Amino acid sequence: MIDQPYVYGHRELAEPDWRRLPGWADVPDSDWESAQWQRAHCVKNIRQLHQVIGDGLDEGFYADLERDQAERATMSMLVTPQMINTMVPGRAPADPGFTAEFYADPVRRYMIPVFSDRHPEWPSHPRASRDSLHEAEMWPVEGLTHRYPTKVLAEVLQTCPQYCGHCTRMDLVGNPTTVINKYRFELGRDDRLAAMLDYLRAHPGVRDVVVSGGDVANLPWPRLESFVASLLEIDSIRDIRLATKALMGLPQFWLADDVRAGMERLVATARRRDVSIAIHTHVNSAQSVTPLVARAAKAMLGTGIRDVRNQGVLLRGTNDTAARLLDLCFALLDDAKIMPYYFYMCDMIPGSEHWRLSLAQAQQLQHDIMGYLPGFATPRVVCDVPYVGKRWVHQVARYDRDLGISYWTKNYRTGVELDDAFALEREYEYYDPIDVLPESGQEYWRSEARSPLPAAG
Ligand code: SF4
Predict the structure, then answer these.
(1) What pLDDT score was predicted for residue 453?
(2) Strand 339-345 and strand 389-392: pairing?
(3) Which residues contact 340 (CB under 8 A, 6 or more apart)?
(4) What is the predicted pLDDT for the residue at 415?
(5) Ligand 1 nearest atom to the CA of residue 313, by list position
(6) CB 268: neighbour CB atoms within 10 A?
(7) For the range 412-418, what are the long-range contacts, defined as Cβ-Cβ under 8 Å and sequence gap of 24 or more?
(8) Domains contained in the chain, CATH given
(9) What is the spatial distance between Cα 449 and Cα 455, in angstroms, rounded to a whole number?
(10) Which residue owns the Cα nearest ligand 1 atom 6?
(11) How far is the CA of 432 from the centre of ligand 1 (A)?
(12) Does 163 contact ligand 1 (Cβ within 6 A)?
């Protein structure tokens, strides 16, 4: 009998033993399960990484990391112990070959990027830009992106408990790096949130609010609860989605008694008002789904929220095969009860070329994951096209594979096109990473880089 391309097997979730890491050899369960301890022991720099991992990593790795931070990184380093512990699970730094395994680790690849990861000729696409989705252009009030007709994105804060190397909001989120200064909100937090609520009260056509940032787990819970409670008082709002990678990166936060009790209060109000509250998280690799993550997801479902959904990002070296995507989806679905929902193509921000996949690769992955998961849990692979929004990868209108340019259309006006009669007739472009193009396509971009044309759009 011939094997199926993917063979499912239920995988028991396991928490890797953090005591294998020299810096945390004596950390008791009670500390590990405390959100405060996790926040206080995040790895923020090379010295702290060295203290945790010890001499098991070659000096060359630390030099590679240092060079990336000096010349390329768009996000500063911030990795929770929970996430460090899922890198190279089951192996100790003293084990032979640890450095090579650390380099190859799917979580390390995007949380602790190093210089040698990046493409030497094309670290960035020539059309890459900060705020590549033009979210700030679509702010009717600071931090509130009104891109789709019926839904908005509320960027309530600029920080997260962990910083991902490929963060699409690298323009806004986190601390400045050597190469990237961050945009800072002009309004104070409370004035900004009040202005968002005023806008939503005045625009009853908006029914769905994604409360994001940053990561809502970094807003003090009473402030988050009061903002969501105010949303619940607006009659037109029917769906509220809380965006938090911390459900995976810092599950201890979502397991805390005060957070669970607060969510129960919000859900009770939401039920009376017939509103759905859901959590959207961001998990990119099966090894990130541990028993603590599953407990946090189930604790939140236990409060009565509508769902916990995952929006991962397709990243080379992390999840760019059908087997890795399916392993992740089954880990989420089987024991954590997290619904696989989207896989985004990585956005065209600076420094992301080595992570990005071509549209053709994304289409192939969508094809290859079909039929294994239940239909309701089969994630859509989507491209977030600048000035358009999310499009399923097979919705492309035209595709020049030689130059790696895909052309997309849309069926609604974003917030910046309400007076534009031609917005729905235009085609909008997305670009494949150059290093995967045929030689003729690569040569086109080299010659363009020598005499750049005005950016299309
Ligand atoms: S958690 Fe989300 S917002 Fe925060 S750094 Fe990661 S991708 Fe960016």
Answers:
(1) 58
(2) unpaired
(3) 309, 310, 312, 328, 329, 332, 333, 373, 377, 378, 379
(4) 83
(5) 7
(6) 12
(7) 412/148, 412/149, 413/149, 414/138, 414/146, 414/147, 414/148, 414/387, 414/388, 414/389, 415/138, 415/140, 415/145, 415/146, 415/147, 416/134, 416/137, 416/138, 416/387, 417/387
(8) 18-117 (no CATH), 136-450 (3.20.20.70)
(9) 12
(10) 164
(11) 22
(12) yes
286-342 confidence digits (pLDDT tens): 999 999 999 999 999 999 999 999 999 999 999 999 999 999 999 999 999 999 999
State in Å: Cα 169 to ligand 1 middle. Answer: 7
With a 6 Å cutoff on the Cβ, whether 225 touches ligand 1 is: no
Q: Is ligand 1 within 6 A of the CB of residue 280?
A: no
Mean pLDDT of the chain: 96
Q: Is 169 in the pocket of ligand 1 (CB under 6 A)?
A: yes
Q: Is 247 in the pocket of ligand 1 (CB under 6 A)?
A: no
Summarize pLDDT for 41-88 with one digit per residue, the tens: 999 999 999 999 999 999 999 999 999 999 999 999 999 999 999 999
pLDDT at residue 427 tops 50: yes
Mutate to test the pocket of ligand 1, among 173, 182, 279, 314 (most ligand atoms within 8 A of CB): 173
Whole-number Å distance between alpha carbons of 366 and 344: 11
Q: How far is the CA of 215 from the centre of ligand 1 (A)?
A: 7
Of the pLDDT bands very low, low, confident and very high (cuts 50, 70, 90), residue 38 is very high
Tokens of residue 40, six digits: 């206080």
Phi, psi of 308 (to 5 degrees): -120, 120
pLDDT tens profile 358-402: 999 999 999 999 999 999 999 999 999 999 999 999 999 999 999
344 ligand 1 Cβ < 6 A: no
| Nearest ligand 1 atom to alpha carbon 213 | 3
**Distance between CA 105 and CA 110 in Å, rounded?**
9
Would the CB of 215 count as within 6 Å of ligand 1? yes
What spacing in Å lies between the alpha carbon of 112 and ligand 1's midpoint?
A: 13
Query: According to the model, what pLDDT value does residue 256 have?
Result: 98
CA distances from 369 to 7, 169, 182, 355 (A): 12, 28, 37, 20
Ligand 1 centroid vs 119 CA: distance in angstroms? 22
Q: Is the CB of 282 under 6 A from ligand 1?
A: yes
Tell me what the mean pLDDT of segment 222-239 comes to: 98
Would the pTM count as exceeding 0.85? yes
Q: Is 160 in the pocket of ligand 1 (CB under 6 A)?
A: yes
pLDDT in tens, 239-253: 999 999 999 999 999
